[in-house]
Design goal:
CATH architecture of the largest domain: Alpha-Beta Barrel
Shape: globular
Strand content: 15-25%
Number of helices: 11
Radius of gyration: 23 Å
Number of strands: 16
CATH topology of the largest domain: TIM Barrel
Strand order of the largest sheet: 4-5-6-7-8-9-10-11
CATH superfamily of the largest domain: Glycosidases
Oligomer: single chain
Helix content: 25-40%
Order of helices and strands: EEEEHHHEHHEHEHEHEHEHEHEEEEE
CATH class of the largest domain: Alpha Beta
Distance between the termini: 23 Å
Number of domains: 2
């Protein structure tokens, strides 16, 4: 039996592989014996994501984002980079910040985000929503309402989005940055008083149970930037209280410098103790000067111009390689989402993108592409089935296309398929 196995496995990534025996059949269900077929990987099991904010205007046919509530790159730049984006990323996060999504009570921008979600899915990527509940960017029109009314309105907002986008957006940051939520003082908002009344576990329960009731198929994350024992305690308390958390979201905005392998491993070991998938939800690495270390809140460092530099770009490419390799090497990591594709319209004006503000690609794009579509990718391979129509497929977990002549079929190489036999019907 011939085997599709042309992958040189990088050290520490064997847990990302699987092997299965495929029986290739034709339209009539009969095995295709002694037939040349092409087997090619089309998708990674590991989520390789980025924000899709840049594409909201593009998907809605808007010529400018000057008045856009969701920000992002200039539409013409985003359009020009579309192919590059989807050649690398298989998940895109869309902005559901409540203040921007529903700037006027009762008038949400549902169709604009639905158009963007459909557009992204048509390009072959999954869509994640961020976030359903958060104190920052809560609507100004909520101010002055009593906590009971705020709770009712928040539940209705979560229900509306989780149910209304079902099938388009099924993965959500259910609630964001709860560790600081009851203590938040940077701006007046109506969610912090509600968190104070319900407690951290109570408001997490509200978000998760409301979203799951609205969409039983939803995959829900608890997301935070706080990597301390306070976040560990919150997760423990929520799980002990019976809150069902599907994955733990870990932010890694490294505007002040790369964490390094040692600290990253410490974070991974700390949060993998719960046995839940880990999603690195918001990763950034700058290609210019680093934010000063004395800055406590990253939002406090906003300067007129933060340029990308040749030296910074080489550093960023090296750190991208190291960071993604470290994360992929840990079996608990299920997804890695970067927070910015271009420097144009980037958060805080920081040069964190894979593309410069003029649309040209930085070395970091090639560095990540070499990992995702090079070292971690099973290339197209022609192999001949045996007398029973069988062949052995060994490669990185993900989705594969099998083609013979003008017919093709699809198979998932995952934990369920590992060391099993799978039939692939070509149509």
């Amino acid at each position: 039996m011939q085997c599709v196995n042309t992958v040189t496995v990088p050290q520490g990534l064997r847990h990302r592989l699987a092997e299965t025996v495929l029986t290739i059949t034709g339209p009539d269900g009969a095995p295709l014996a002694d037939t040349d077929v092409v087997v090619e990987q089309t998708r990674h099991e590991l989520g390789i994501g980025n924000i899709g904010f840049d594409f909201v205007a593009v998907a809605n046919g808007e010529k400018s984002n000057a008045d856009s509530l969701f920000g992002g790159a200039r539409p013409e730049l985003a359009q020009a980079l579309t192919e590059r984006f989807f050649d690398l990323f298989n998940v895109a996060t869309l902005p559901f910040y409540w203040r921007s999504f529903e700037p006027e009570e009762g008038h949400p921008h549902t169709e604009r985000l639905a158009n963007a979600a459909r557009w992204i899915r048509a390009h072959g990527a999954d869509v994640k929503g961020h976030p359903l509940a958060w104190h920052t960017l809560a609507p100004q029109w909520l101010l002055g309402r009593d906590p009971e009314e705020v709770e009712r309105i928040l539940r209705a907002r979560i229900t509306r989005e989780a149910s209304g986008f079902r099938g388009l957006v099924d993965t959500w940051d259910a609630i964001n940055e709860v560790v600081i939520m009851p203590e938040f003082t940077a701006e007046d908002n109506a969610i912090t008083p509600l968190a104070q009344r319900l407690g951290r576990v109570g408001i997490v329960r509200l978000a998760f149970e409301t979203a799951r009731a609205a969409n039983p198929d939803a995959f829900l994350l608890l997301n935070d930037f706080n990597m301390s024992e306070k976040y560990v305690q919150l997760i423990e308390d929520c799980l002990e209280a019976g809150v069902r958390i599907d994955a733990i979201g870990l932010q890694s905005h490294m505007h002040q410098g790369y964490w390094g392998e040692e600290r990253t491993q410490e974070v991974l070991e700390c949060f993998s103790r719960f046995g839940l998938p880990l999603h690195f939800t918001e990763t950034t690495l700058v290609s210019g000067h680093l934010m000063p270390p004395e800055i406590v809140d990253l939002n406090d460092y906003q300067i007129p111009h933060w340029p990308s530099t040749p030296e910074g770009e080489e550093r960023q490419a090296d750190e991208i390689r190291r960071h993604y390799t470290t994360l992929a090497s840990h079996p608990a990591v299920a997804a890695i989402t970067y927070w910015g594709f271009t420097d144009d319209g980037a958060w805080l004006g920081a040069p964190v993108g894979f593309a410069r503000a003029d649309g040209t690609l930085k070395p970091s794009y090639a560095a990540l592409h070499d990992l995702v579509k090079g070292q971690w990718w099973t290339p197209p391979t022609t192999v001949r089935t045996d007398a029973d129509g069988k062949l052995r497929l060994s490669g990185f977990r993900g989705t594969y296309r099998v083609t013979a002549a003008d017919r093709s079929g699809e198979v998932k190489l995952d934990a369920a398929a590992d060391q099993a036999e799978t039939r692939v019907g070509l149509q």
